[in-house]
Amino acid sequence: MPDYPYITPDHLSTAVILLDEGERVIYLNPAAENLFEVSGKNLLGQPLPLVFTDNGQLASAMARAADNNASYIEHDLMLTTNAHSKLHVRCTVTPLSTGRLLLEFHPMDRPLKLAREEQMLDQTQANRLLLRNLAHEIKNPLGGIRGAAQLLEQELDKPGLREYTQVIIQEADRLRGLMEKLLTPQSNTRHSALNIHEVLERVRSVVLAEMPEGLEIRRDYDTSLPALTGDKEQLIQVILNIVRNGAQAMHGQGRIILRTRIARQVTLFKKRHRLAVMVQIIDNGPGIAPELRDKIFYPLVSGRADGHGLGLTLAQDFVSQHHGTIEFDSEPGCTRFTVMLPLQAAG
User: Fold this and answer.
1) Does pLDDT of 214 surpass 70?
2) What is the DSSP string of 228-251?
């Protein structure tokens, strides 16, 4: 932290960056690390463009503040970070007597974020009810299909034909197991300490085994992350559904990045958390069609003709059970899903 006793921004929710006379970063607080998805240790001493790829408006605001030797407020500033996130912020630039600049950033989309979280919670509850009703309707016919396949197998004269009845029986058992999971009360989930990178590595190995040719899955891990409390199997299913969707959208030909970071002073569903784990799944595929973006988490909605439209619905449900959030942004060449999971009780 810089040697300014009157600046104590470590615990502020406002993002703060301090620049020296050469506009190099000499300090940024945890809120800024979280907002801009960067590590303070990596940026100290670096020029500001390493934080933002497009800072024309910001550079103009800084020049005005310096020229007039007075604070300048840019009320409508659009920033693109090096993590490719687009941010709508209000920025206050304050020149200090030493020639340094103090930048304060206030996100303008926070009310929208709260509204999206409330909508997500309502949607998740409605989806859960729909899935449970759907599971009830599917479970009984599955029992009849399985029984009929067993009877048919006993009547077949050719042993070679029995492999087909075995496929029917095994698939019926698999679907029945899925229906049982959908009908299982949330209280039956098994939460324990886990390493989120073990979850990601499991998913990575599964998807690469399914699509061994042409698919690249890169790791961008913060290995210093503490253990997370959660249901390991549920979190594997969350990440697997997202990664598999991205890989299938690219027909197994493309790049997926698995990224982990620590997020500080995060608000999830109106509850403040000191620390959270942020997991991002980024692919360079064609992007999500605009007409699907508002309903991508709805059940039975899919961008593929052969898709069942349950993968992201289940992912959202499981993340919600962990008191976390799942969001996405998408454009051709870059689709990013961000999963936020609190590390401890809200406080």
Assistant:
1) yes
2) EEE-HHHHHHHHHHHHHHHHHHTT
